[in-house]
Here is the input.
Amino acid sequence: MHYSSNPNIFCASTFRLHHFLGLGATVKVSSESSLSGTVTGGGDNYSYLSACTLRATPAQNRSFSGWFEDGQYLSLSNPYTFSVTGDRNIIAKFTTTNNNYSLETSVSIHPINTNGLFQFVAGGTVSPGSLNSTAYATLNLKATSAAGFTFSHWLDLDSEKVLSAENPYPVKMTRDMRIQAVFSKNGFVIVPKE
Here is the structure.
């Protein structure tokens, strides 16, 4: 067996194996916040060196600020076309044009068994609720647990990353954000029948 120090030979061989197995590279594309704009392009089963084109469309009062991967700037081109050499996870970022960012808050919803019937209840509340804020202002989010629930953490709904378990939680508005207060159930929750 011949080994090469050239990474392109390994990549090409890996792609040939993936192609033989009916697999290809995946290009995942997303917006840093769905409130800021939308993206198109990407998908599954790209063959080695095939072209992939991504497009970003800013929301009202937003402008496109670039494509990023693993926190690294890739390009300001829009549309952005590149040759696929492996799996990619590319994020479109946007900035404000009116010095305001949007915050959308929500709470986790939980299934509860009420006399044999399932219903869904909120684990608590968040204040302040959804709003627009001056860019770079700091807002203090506070989660209040409903009976039978305990606050767990704050979740960025766009990146699906845990932000903090701090409550209240100071959020600096450096971009549009969708944040969820996640609660956990304390054992069984009884909801009275009306």
In short: The helical segments are 7-20. Residues 1-13, 188-194 have pLDDT under 50 and may be disordered. The radius of gyration is 22 Å.
